[in-house]
Sequence to fold (436 residues):
Amino acid sequence: MKLSVYTLLMALSITACNTTFDETPPGPQFDGTAYRPVYATSQEIKNIQSLPARALKKPGKIYLLGSFLFINEMGAGVHIINNSDPKNPENLAFVSIPANYDIAVKGNWLYADNGTDLVVFDISNPREVRLARRIEKAIPLNKYPPFQNTYFECVDDTKGVVVSWEKVTVSARPSCYR
Amino acid sequence: MKRFFQKTCIVLLSGLLALSVWQCEMGASADVAPGATGVGGSMARFAITDNTLYIVTRQSLDVYDISSPSEPVRKGKAELGLGIETIFPYQKNLFVGANDGMYIFDNRQPQSPVLLSKYTHVMSCDPVVVQGTYAYVTLRGGVGCRMWQPQSTLDVVDVSNPSSPRMLNSQQLLSPYGLGVDGNKLFVCEGDKGLKVFDISSPTVPIQIQFLTEVPAYDVIPYRNTLIVTGNKGLYQYRYDGTQTGTSLELLSKIPVE
Fold:
């Protein structure tokens, strides 16, 4: 009997934790900041460009292939670095890919997410990267920022597609969090 | 009523503490050679093995044939629970990290992975790296149950039998993100708090030997004595020694953010 009461309590608590704390907010501790979605039109989001090297702003995930290092610029594209001498990495070029967070490379081919699309680039010349293939709607879009334990302004689909997230100071605690 | 739920949360917490069932996501490892397909960090959602591209979306594992590299062909899709975060191929297995657990797939048929086990837990997690038969897992405290202190841990998990992973050791962390392992060194990103280096000469007992508090760290790739660290101050590279004990990181270069 004791065991079954305990089991019942466990079961109840699992379902209860998320919803019943009206005296302590259920979300993470609020520090006055939150992530705000940056919107673009469905046209803008497909605007891919091979550009000269640019400075890092919000470096995200990384991928290493031989002497080449690829650094995701969160929500914006990929920096291509010649890393044959890790003491003197050379910033070669930037591929502008709106709403990009993930990358993988095989040989001369770069795979990336471009919002909900999977795109493939020929990078045999890193300074003249060429879009080789687009597979539309391959990846469902996340409606939350790529961080946990944080608040964010809820996504409003009528404003467009979310390409990136900026951290901002807010006066009130947003209702969305993860 | 509130008090009742608070109590039950505490019961839940202590029950789970006693059970110590916290295993979760798998990330990247250092001994994937950056040959033709390269190596990603532990936070990756994209991974390539030979002619197969894997993408984890928030709810599925998608498999693409890239035998013809510019023409990915979708081969299959495994629907998983919500909150899928990372993928890491290691030898004959794929390790898929999710907010509610870790999925381990048999990958001997690369384009039709077979689910071997799902390891569930209650907290949200970060990736894992694998070396030999040990997985190093960082678990970040979740927001699901706030009575619960948002405790974060580094766990060592025996994955010699991928059908039944087993926790061996656990120690507290601050705010973990990605991690990487090579030889006797384990590198753990603590987000804005910095980068930690552990000695794992005894693989089941990581011992912290260095904590770079001035280097915000989101993800790492350790490869051939060069550690690449990405974070919100920029990209740092260090020389490390994965064979000697008592050695520390030596800064090679930094690409700052502007």
About this structure: DSSP finds one helix and 21 strands in chain B. The first helix of chain B runs from residue 2 to 19. Residues 73 and 211 of chain B are 44 Å apart (CA to CA). The longest strand of chain B covers residues 166-173.
